[in-house]
Design brief:
Helix content is 35%, strand content 23%. The chain has 7 helices and 8 strands; from the N terminus they run βββββααααβββααα. α3 packs antiparallel against α4 and α4 runs parallel beside α7. The longest helix is centred in the C-terminal third of the chain and has 19 residues. The radius of gyration is 20 Å and the shape is elongated.
Length: 233
């Protein structure tokens, strides 16, 4: 019988799901292959050697071979467990949000080193403790890397300056001025300014920012609504 070649890569475990018998499938965003779904033979057995290394929100090095339908994991070794996340319900909720957004928005087998780096650095940031800006920052950066950024510098229809914007259109993908009718979310100039700035800042800078509660709620609603719209398409 011909021995199958083993391939190695690093990946963040996004989610796991039950498969037949004692197997489980694990969805990872990998550094070399992008998002992939793997079969982990015997993962549901109590003594499985793969168990801890394939828990959600774990940075893992895996060795696998290509199967007929799914790649099959032969070995898995923990690089970073992000144990702080798994001990805090609020952090688990945020980590689940990040993983779900990646799973819903990215296509399988489309590697992107920048997306992989964003996921790893965001989980590291999350392991430092709760920060309300992690979700909107991550969402905007991922949308940008996927070419889905909302237009927040001017009206998406007529390019009038953002100072004339009165709302955020999910369908049109950005700000709209009063000249354009249709469904849109009302949004203040202060919230627009935050959206624009957050899109351009790096993670180190965002960590130091504090935003007033009322403004945070407003621009978070715009981002979450747009994100939900994109995930539905």
């Amino acid at each position: 019988m011909r021995k199958l070649p083993l391939y190695k890569t690093k990946g963040i475990v996004l989610l796991t799901k039950k498969a037949k018998e004692a197997d489980k499938n694990a969805v990872l965003y990998t550094s070399d292959y992008g998002k992939m779904e793997f079969c982990a033979k015997g993962l549901r057995k109590i003594k499985s050697r793969l168990g801890a290394a394939l828990e959600p929100f774990t940075l893992t090095e895996i060795a696998f071979w290509w199967g007929e339908k799914l790649a099959i994991i032969r070995e898995a070794k923990i690089i970073h467990s992000y144990s702080e996340i798994k001990e805090n319900l609020d952090l688990i909720e945020t980590a689940s949000f990040l993983a779900r957004v990646v799973d819903r928005l990215t296509q399988a087998n489309h590697p992107d080193k920048n997306i992989f780096g964003l996921i790893v650095s965001s989980f590291l940031w999350l392991s430092e403790g709760v920060n309300p800006l992690i979700k909107p920052f991550f969402s905007l950066k991922l949308l940008s890397l996927l070419g889905l950024s909302p237009q927040v510098s001017q009206c998406v229809c007529c390019q009038k300056k953002r100072q004339e914007a009165v709302g955020f259109s999910l369908e049109k993908g950005g700000l709209v001025c009063s000249a354009h009718n249709g469904n849109y979310l009302p949004i203040s100039q202060q919230a627009i300014h935050i959206l624009d700035r957050l899109s351009s800042l790096n993670m180190a800078t965002v960590k130091r920012i504090t935003i007033a509660k009322n403004l945070f709620g407003e621009f978070e609603m715009a981002i979450n609504s747009y994100l939900t719209y994109q995930m539905g398409h």
